[in-house]
Records
---
Amino acid sequence: MTRRVIVDTDTAGDDTQAILLGALSGAVELELLTIVAGNVEFDYQVENAKYTLELAGVADEVPVYEGARRPLVKEFEHVDHVHGAGGLGGELFPDTGIESAEGYGPDAIVEAVRESPGELTLVCIGPLTNIALALRREPRLGELVEEVVVMGGAVNTLGNDTPSAEFNFWVDPDAAKVVMRELDVTLLDWGLTMRQATLESDELEPIEEAETPYADFFDEITAHLREFSEERFGSDATTQPDSLAMATVIEPDLVEEAPRYHVDVDEREGLTRGYSMVDELGITDGEARTRVVESIDEARFKTIFTDMLLHGDPDRSL
Amino acid sequence: MTRRVIVDTDTAGDDTQAILLGALSGAVELELLTIVAGNVEFDYQVENAKYTLELAGVADEVPVYEGARRPLVKEFEHVDHVHGAGGLGGELFPDTGIESAEGYGPDAIVEAVRESPGELTLVCIGPLTNIALALRREPRLGELVEEVVVMGGAVNTLGNDTPSAEFNFWVDPDAAKVVMRELDVTLLDWGLTMRQATLESDELEPIEEAETPYADFFDEITAHLREFSEERFGSDATTQPDSLAMATVIEPDLVEEAPRYHVDVDEREGLTRGYSMVDELGITDGEARTRVVESIDEARFKTIFTDMLLHGDPDRSL
Amino acid sequence: MTRRVIVDTDTAGDDTQAILLGALSGAVELELLTIVAGNVEFDYQVENAKYTLELAGVADEVPVYEGARRPLVKEFEHVDHVHGAGGLGGELFPDTGIESAEGYGPDAIVEAVRESPGELTLVCIGPLTNIALALRREPRLGELVEEVVVMGGAVNTLGNDTPSAEFNFWVDPDAAKVVMRELDVTLLDWGLTMRQATLESDELEPIEEAETPYADFFDEITAHLREFSEERFGSDATTQPDSLAMATVIEPDLVEEAPRYHVDVDEREGLTRGYSMVDELGITDGEARTRVVESIDEARFKTIFTDMLLHGDPDRSL
Amino acid sequence: MTRRVIVDTDTAGDDTQAILLGALSGAVELELLTIVAGNVEFDYQVENAKYTLELAGVADEVPVYEGARRPLVKEFEHVDHVHGAGGLGGELFPDTGIESAEGYGPDAIVEAVRESPGELTLVCIGPLTNIALALRREPRLGELVEEVVVMGGAVNTLGNDTPSAEFNFWVDPDAAKVVMRELDVTLLDWGLTMRQATLESDELEPIEEAETPYADFFDEITAHLREFSEERFGSDATTQPDSLAMATVIEPDLVEEAPRYHVDVDEREGLTRGYSMVDELGITDGEARTRVVESIDEARFKTIFTDMLLHGDPDRSL
Ligand SMILES: [Ca+2]
Ligand SMILES: [Ca+2]
Ligand SMILES: [Ca+2]
Ligand SMILES: [Ca+2]
């Protein structure tokens, strides 16, 4: 059975690979993309998304809606230093000529789920502004979707944007708080990525050597990021948080452990902006409604990912 | 020249009088109303607004759009204890049978101002959730409106909801922060109301004695509030913050002093949630963009208000 | 009956006048001074205090103890731009050669009140660090003193350091919070000073013309401050918050209205650091334990103050 | 060479074992103990400390000073539910009849380090109130001590008091912030304890079987805690955070990895009160002054600990 998916993305870096996975897998049908303020300048993100869809040959079928151009409440800064200016490594600045779909991202989400209640899965791989806005427009959003998969937070571990926060939650902590409070979410955090969704140098070699368009695209967009990671994290391994999120939608069996915990987000400015409080021991009296993915089948995920890059077919070994 | 006005309201208490003023004055043309979470239960507010329009005989012409049913981020509680259950004094629970307009409040605002750029004035007499949501949808909102008039905040004075905050700013401090940061606002605060927009017992007598439908309506909705005020503020004077906001749109010359100051809002939970920081001395380096109304022609305002109640014609003495 | 007084001071500007009042009035016996981090560099403050005692001829009798050199928790900056470098107008940098008393300010306070339980009054005219430290050493401090008089806070009015805070509370908001929570305080805030303890140009003329040492000292230390006030507040009137605090100890009948309210302080960094929440309407459930002075006998205060400067005798007209 | 040690402790549970280690090891000479508000009621803690010293036969030589009876600024609650009423498991309420030393804990620390500059090591195994108070009294504290060893914080891992905070930092986050900002600290956090300083059921067996007074004491005080841990953490293993801190003073070579990082503490009330921000990647511009112990020689630590309990001699295998 094909899962119908909406991707909400601040398209740069690994967002593109997640989109490719969704576009190329037979297990998923991309309904639409919504763009949200995040990684790099908004208009670059829109182009990056369109370019990626074009690369996968689905630009005609998957409309791209522009959403919130800034977080709900807080100010923020782009991270061009991570993904390179433009968000695709620093050399690639697509100009596809494809028109954005008419309408506002959060509306598009609301209308789609109203039309197909219980059938759509939201894969959220950027700051959660669009989703929070959709919630204000449609308080019953949670009942109308099949599943909400979020890449975000740093579950009782070091963050990647500040020591206390992961980037998506840091950019719009208010939206993250709203979403975690009001929706049943499957959460894949930065810690999971660090443990199980990084590709080490040796794992990257086959991709570097391959000459498929997807592998070339991957090499291009990761070049800058790998340098940055080398510097910040002391390793040129690549991290694939967004791809992992999409992969668990393609193949739910990837998820091995995912207990439900109470999750809250610190939305205040200061030391802990965007901190994800995950109550693993049930100490607080908050409701344990978030499914926190703690471990996945790492080998299988990497097979899916590599099959996509080397063969254009993430489902190849499924 | 008639000013075209959108009223954003959590209709209860004085919101009704502001709507009546707008509906009955020839200086103002009500384009539409949007309802926002605030004073009392959302659905009551919607009915209260429709009932008020009906009373003024304009229910056919002025569509009522339902907007945000909760604040951007924070939780809040209604203040039934202030306005009586239902928001109209506790005895009156209208059920007009009028349909709400199709569409979402914040969208209605955006579409209206896009259609008539520079021609519409927003009169905001509730929490600012709808306006903040409109800003996320249309970042150029400020350029598209003629003026944004806000009743809110407590300018370096005691608040009415907590000691540090006025109700509208307290309910949705995030929205208030966003609006004060991103729009040029004419602000009428709770302090101004306390100084110049309260009707004392003797001023209320003619209204109590009058038997016009507007005066009767006023008596009904203020009965509970006057008791509450007697208890909390030690006086049964009524306060007309929202009416004053609308009156300054009907007659801009009511405004006597309105310097521009930098205004910020504390959106954090805790002691100062909803606190309005107004930099009267220019100590901070924030931009002085908010026009803070410090004094009005009180006698004239009261004439307008009383003319409306006693003669159904706020313009009578203009 | 003479009241025995401890003055806790960040000696600069009006602190000196308060000390003079205490030293020259027969109604008060200065037991000791403690110096706290505040207005200007700590060592200047110590010298300023000693110089002032010397000027009043009591340097031999009143020991000066050095207290906390920084706030309990927060970082802060001096306000040399207000009081002039050094804190006495910018030209005067005393070097008295007088030794500080052996011991730590907060200890000196604790030991003094333990020796004379119920007999000493604390007049606190600087940030409240020393008092909070004394409280941690002696939890029964409140039972051991006769009265605690604090100059601090901005009661539902504009602050003088930031729009939301008065200087003493801003510098050490944690200490202010602790003191307001744990002691019964008589509070004289910045708003009271603005309303009733400012000397206008015409009131200052006799002082300027007088050639007594006290008047000359006053002229010197206020010269810079008056320029600063002219610039910031648009008036070269002088403000005498600390003198007023001491005057109410000399002559308690100066106080006309002083209801008890619940007072809390925002100790958080940010927009409202040092904000004094004063619950004038009893809305919160906090205990109404702080005696907030709302009005004084202004003429009489000014007589006391002027008598001190012109005749060296604050009690002259009492 | 013997290290001279001051122990600052909220004596309950493992604090007692740390004191025993210090008292029984020839590598350490206990100079004095200071008691600080924390685990259980203050007066119980004082008695617990004296009882422990008596058990080790050093009650005559090691004075116990009473320090701060509450945190610098925040309110807090005891954790009788963790350590049992009284803090020694719930059955044992010592009443030693030993007098506390004259003087205030923070003063005793200041006086001791002033007398022997550079010679004393502070082993801080409670909330850091006393240390922060000592810092306010003696700003040069850091220069006067040999080393400051702190058990506290949860370094990018789940806390034990709330999900975001370890108990000592949670109780007095302001003091923790002050200490981390103003002193060079060797920090042993809760995460290290969880990884390397827990004794599992099988490791506890020999202790349970032994009938030495120390082993009996250990069994008694851990009985309640093990039940509590079983419930909260799903394991009846005991945790020895304080013992580990003291063990690293007895045998510094226990420490295997201890890089220096910038550490800050969130002192705000709310979700992240007491959160320890540890900048492992050097992302912030804070100074990397805290030596964060990341790994120790676990086997050796356990040998020291067991030797103490079974043979009364922690140095037995050194
Ligand atoms: Ca992303
Ligand atoms: Ca309203
Ligand atoms: Ca002062
Ligand atoms: Ca402890």
---
Amino acid sequence: MRLTSRNACQTADQLDSLHDLRKEFRLADGMIYLDGNSLGAQPHAAMRKAQHVIENEWGNDLIKSWNTAGWFDLPSRLGNQLAPLIGADPNEVVVTDTTSINLFKAIAAALDIQARDPATAHKKTIITESSNFPTDIYMAEGITRWLDRGYHIQLIESPEDLATSINDDTALVMLTHVNYRSGYLHDMQYVTAQAHQHGAMCIWDLAHSAGAVPVELNKANADFAVGCCYKYLNGGPGAPAFIWVPHRHQAQFAHPLTGWWGHAAPFAMQTHFEATPGIRRALCGTQPIVSLAMIESGLDLFARTNMQTIRDKSLALTDLFIQRVEHVCASHQLELVTPRSHQHRGSHVSFKHEHAYAIIQALIARQVIGDYREPGIMRFGFTPLYTSFTDVWDAVEHLSDILDKQLYDKNIQRNVVT
Amino acid sequence: MRLTSRNACQTADQLDSLHDLRKEFRLADGMIYLDGNSLGAQPHAAMRKAQHVIENEWGNDLIKSWNTAGWFDLPSRLGNQLAPLIGADPNEVVVTDTTSINLFKAIAAALDIQARDPATAHKKTIITESSNFPTDIYMAEGITRWLDRGYHIQLIESPEDLATSINDDTALVMLTHVNYRSGYLHDMQYVTAQAHQHGAMCIWDLAHSAGAVPVELNKANADFAVGCCYKYLNGGPGAPAFIWVPHRHQAQFAHPLTGWWGHAAPFAMQTHFEATPGIRRALCGTQPIVSLAMIESGLDLFARTNMQTIRDKSLALTDLFIQRVEHVCASHQLELVTPRSHQHRGSHVSFKHEHAYAIIQALIARQVIGDYREPGIMRFGFTPLYTSFTDVWDAVEHLSDILDKQLYDKNIQRNVVT
């Protein structure tokens, strides 16, 4: 269905099976929030959850809550709740630490597995994209520099060059499933198969795909995955991240961050580390309970729909956005950075423009919230749980008005955080 | 002043300059909370802070709050607020991640500094106590196993043997300032000097001393320190931890957890890691903002007193507890594990007993909250900000009643979490 008027968008919203879920979020009147790919909006339930944890669990029950409120089990319980959204089985996911730290564990474990196998011990290259989210590259740099065993990071410029770059020296392919900047969606099953064909392992960062696009980790036979809970999962600012280790790799999953939460007997107070069996060996230290607990309020909402419904609406929203921008802003040198092909499009859309930063500031001043990414990219995220077709229509109207009338300050100073 | 009656304790409470601070905490009527060394009680202000962050910063302002609410600067701002409590200078502390992960960074950095200096490159031993909190030992095991450069962990059985164990092969001495089990308080200045005399570096874990005893990191010329914000600092369950790197070591502070928050230009999206100058190079990934922000409410209360006043009351409380237990429970084979000497006593007191676990459960059933630690230890924490002399008196009355009448279940099953 091609939506060619604001009225048609309003009708589409009425027909949208996800329409009711929007009411579950705190969204200011008049704001069009297109940045859920950076920080997800707040489920109303998150405040009630935090108040309960602070008042009852911490305030009244204090130390007892480690047992009675299940704080110690929270990383596993939330992991199991999240698992179906990413095609993982029960007891394969924990919610803990940060995406960067979880990636460190996964890279370390993958290199260790490769190094222990005589068939792969010679492999020294880690392949990733030069446009991968920088912290992913930095974490790989960190561990390879410290291991000091000749590992080398190969940065691929274009996703099309990925498959042909994998060769016999490739130890590890490490990608963000949906590129944070371009919104390019990798074919997880194909890339993983290419990696395996050359004896390499494959780690996926799901920061921009968990809760946004269908993910089938086990079906793709992926090796490890990490991801973030504060974007499309709406877990709250800086909410702890997740790590997925499939059952087939758990027994050999070893990493250097061997803290007491990953110990086989954490309260026996032993003097030597012995990894617990199963997914909890991916844990390290004590977790921030209030921030962790709020993640449940975000995950609960996914029980009222499914990832295919979310995907269908996501593509309809991004299709509409691209069509409208290209139609009403045709004269303004906007370059679409995001793939047109549904097969390779995530849930955000990026356009390049000489004055991208200034234009984003002008949009924000009108309560249309997108964000800016270096170099010269305007990024707009579409969250099917709360973004409406009318939001998209109105956002593009604002954008075209700003562009047509040059209502942005070309000399604005950049002040970019996040 | 020796307190020999409940009346005298009540009078001492009235005279106590910290008495008013107790009102700032949520403490259930009738509960005697002696476990602030495990999870600090809740400042009333923490709920207001969380509500503000959730409702206004996340809920209303969403992504803008990274700038407008100062989320990105929070680790440094809280670090600077915490610094005076541990004898640190401004811009030497950040609040981030967990104690285990921060210790990993500190150990990695110390071993790196030692390995780069020809005078110390041969050193291969890390000295710690066998009774150190297990995760500290495990993190050292994790990094040494992965570096695979011949490092060896030497576990000391008694604090008296520490100084004589340090020798020319010692690369690193790593201790918890106040032992989590015995409450033994190490002489930071003396031990650090002994380590330096042998060319070793010295890392201190302040989990049981920050906010509990005066700490003078710079005066002691310590090398690195880490610690936790959810015990005596009352930051909330699993609140992010802190790491101290003195100015003299910051330029050479390098660790493998090189995430984007530690980058010199985190938003320039570069493809290579370059550590930021200063303390923020100890950061790694995005932090759990709600749990992080609540720490401020705990720290704020310390501005109304000083560490010497806290120390004086702490010693008076632990003196009273030891005296009363030894007086009224004299016939019950309780063995004091904590040093009698003020010089070596932290802010908790531990007694050994054959039925320690069962006795602690009986106390908890009466709302006297202490905790159990393997092997056979009852542990009682005294938090001068909210523990009263009358609390101490009453707790010992309960203990003696339970012991005198054997009101505990010797066959109870152990179910120990935390």
